[in-house]
TrEMBL record:
Signal peptide: none annotated. This is MFS transporter. InterPro entries: MFS (IPR011701), MFS_trans_sf (IPR036259), MFS_Transporters (IPR050171). The chain crosses the membrane at residues 14-36, 48-69, 89-111, 166-188, 209-234, 300-330, 342-364, 370-390. It is a multi-pass membrane protein. It is found in: Cell membrane. It comes from Streptomyces abikoensis. Residues 400-420 are annotated as: Disordered. The keyword Ribosomal protein does not apply. The keyword Translocase does not apply. Keywords: Cell membrane, Membrane, Transmembrane, Transmembrane helix, Transport.
Amino acid sequence: MSLRHAPEGPPRRVYAAGLLDATGLGMYLSFAAIYLSQGIGMSNYHVALILGTAGVGSLLGAIPVARFADRCGLRRALVVLFCARSLSYVGLCLAVDLWTAMGAAAFGGLLNRGIGPLIQTALIDGRSHEEAVAPLARLRALRNAGMAVGALPAGVAVAVGDEWAYRTIMGAAATMFVLCAVISWSLPREAGSKARRPGKPGLVGNGPFLRVTALYSALILSAILLGTGMALWITQQTDLPRWMVSTNYVLNTVLVVALQTRLARGSESPLTARRMMVGGGALAASGTAVASLTGRGHGWAPIALMLIAVVLMTGAEIYIMAGATSLALIHTPQEHRSTYLATFNLGFGVATVIGPSLISLSLNHGAMGWLAWTVFLSVAAVASHTVPLAPLEVRRPIPSGDPLATSGGSARRKPEGDTV
């Protein structure tokens, strides 16, 4: 995706940092298991242990990283965190045994899920909710493209098959994060770099935000179904050609990059954003229902049905992301955007942790497994209709002499969670 339509100045640099960050992360995510196994010589058990530790670390580190940025400022935090992440990847590049690899992966894991929300916050710093929606959609498209590009070098390293090739890829990922740190340092001090006001973000009391995050976590499981579930289904439960796995991946990536910004238009409206969440859940449920039909038959009919399912679930992914992000921003106080966006992004993190196991178990039951997901996603879509369209108001006790007490009015208060 071209950057020529991106705004000038700091936002353009943030887009560049987001793209490079996603490319480096794509190198790691597509390559980590192969690297640990073939490059370092880890057993499958040790590979699972290392990646599991890094995954848990990513969930635990997201909120502390955001709070760190709230206290010291986005610009400084991004520079420090990108440098730290680069060092963790250098550690992986030089790792020679279980403990060095686990130490580097765990340290990197603590940072992996926390940096993305900071990039989002730097991009929309000072923007209203309505102004933030389009830049975030553009950033998501760029990051999807970066993840796809980052996965390409892994195939080259596997083709070469030598240790130096494996370690070169990991070193290249570390270099990407150094470039991100340099770009972050070039951001003007006044652009997204001032420390936020100290105080608690009020997450626990912000019921609407937590409801959006919980529903997003449920609905975004459809994206894990599309990625992990489709591959397992095609290779284990159907007679579909194996090349459908890569075809589905390419089709999903192309559609997301091409349509992410376009389909997100209008999500700055709270009503439209909620309709997108509901509609995304309906599309996902429809996609799983269609996928349940691909386990029988031969020839082009099941292939066509599978492609239809991928298109439906890709549209669902885009609508769910756009609608949920917009609704989450509505219920996010400006001074704590880093922490709130980190919490919101944990929804996808939790889905990636629990999703593969749930999907694997459910799809063992064949078409009934897909239909169970149809019911689950339909219920989540209906529940999304209950999300408030505006921050809730808290009624303040009214003195007996206050004119509002006799007129039936109520004083306006800050939205829930907007206290410090």
